[in-house]
Amino acid sequence: xxxxxxxxxxxxxxxxxxxxxxxxxxxxxxxxxxxxxxxxxxxxxxxxxxxxxxxxxxxxxxxxxxxxxxxxxxxxxxxxxxxxxxxxxxxxxxxxxxxxxxxxxxxxxxxxxx
Amino acid sequence: xxxxxxxxxxxxxxxxxxxxxxxxxxxxxxxxxxxxxxxxxxxxxxxxxxxxxxxxxxxxxxxxxxxxxxxxxxxxxxxxxxxxxxxxxxxxxxxxxxxxxxxxxxxxxxxx
Lengths: 114, 112
Fold this sequence. Notes:
The complex is a heterodimer of chains A (114) and B (112). Chain A is mainly beta and 114 residues long. Chain A is 0% helix and 46% strand. Chain A contains no helices and ten strands. In chain A, strands 2, 4, 5, 8, 9 and 10 form a six-stranded mixed beta sheet that branches. In chain A, a hairpin with a 5-residue loop joins strand 6 and strand 7 (75-79). Chain A is globular and about 40 Å long. Chain A starts with a strand and ends with a strand. In chain B, 0% of the residues lie in helices and 52% in strands. In chain B, strands 2, 5, 6, 10, 11 and 12 form a six-stranded mixed beta sheet that branches. In chain B, strands 3-9-8-7 form a four-stranded antiparallel beta sheet, with no helix packed on it. The interface between A and B is medium-sized, with 23 and 22 residues.
């Protein structure tokens, strides 16, 4: 597609439920990133995929968070047993995977845990 | 470890005046630096980048940034601010692990 697509755009879930957030990167982009942004604040790095390499999961805040990227394209971020502190905007970005190239961001998924 | 710092949470400027949003970085090796902007209720957009070459880089919407190796800074500038420039600005650097590290963001407010 023309840009990075994230779905759903908004998600309200009850505390303790599992949620899945989806990211469709730009075609041909080998790098994919997930970030979390709380209340218009800074970007917290979560996880990074590059080609077929093992993902960099160093930013995942707990073992309730996991992500996968199937076929080097679509990625799913899963949060199990959601907590209220998980409420945030989850942003996905993709790039050509070179240090000289910028990342393109999706519009984000606003997650609200009630 | 690579990092980037934005020392100002908020910058207030009158329309028509020059603006500067500060960024300093810490990297091992060559720095690859970026500025992104986030307008209200919109996603992040790329503004400009420094990879190599000329220390003054120009980007979208009339913005420019100056790379200063001795001061490890990459400040964002614009000669004449517009009200429409009001947004959240992020400085970013590629880490040695090739993931992108973002600063904490600076909210720019331009008053008419």
